[in-house]
Design brief:
single chain, 119 residues, mainly alpha, 2 domains, 6 helices, 2 strands, 46% helix, globular
Length: 119
């Protein structure tokens, strides 16, 4: 898992390059929300042979389809974010520095992962 902090007023696709430049395993499918519907992201993923499942924005000129059966898997990611937000330190961001906030995100993620493994 890779986490980065972007300004609250920044668009979602601005954080894409921060996360994807790391030396992570190449995904086979990218499931993302409308905020990631940009031609540059689609071209980047196509160059990596990654199947993109991103619903198109209403303003998109060229129509792009989505496999809805595959896109429903994104619900798992959204539920994970919901569980992260239930952690008080993550939701309220009491921490002054980005490093300590990201540390609490990592600790909460590990706690969720261990809870998942024990069931």
């Amino acid at each position: 898992m890779r986490t980065e902090i972007t300004p609250g007023q920044a668009s979602d696709y601005k954080g894409f390059d921060l996360v994807m430049t790391d030396n992570l395993p190449v995904p086979s499918v990218m499931l993302a929300g409308r905020g990631y519907d940009a031609d540059s992201i689609r071209k980047n993923m196509e160059a990596r042979d990654v199947l993109t499942q991103i619903p198109m924005r209403k303003s998109r000129k060229m129509r792009v389809g989505v496999d809805h059966a595959l896109y429903t898997m994104r619900n798992l990611v959204e539920r994970c974010f919901n569980k992260l937000k239930n952690a008080r330190h993550v939701a309220a961001r009491y921490d002054k520095t980005a490093e300590s906030f990201l540390g609490f995100v990592d600790i909460t993620s590990i706690r969720l992962w261990i809870r998942y493994l024990s069931t």
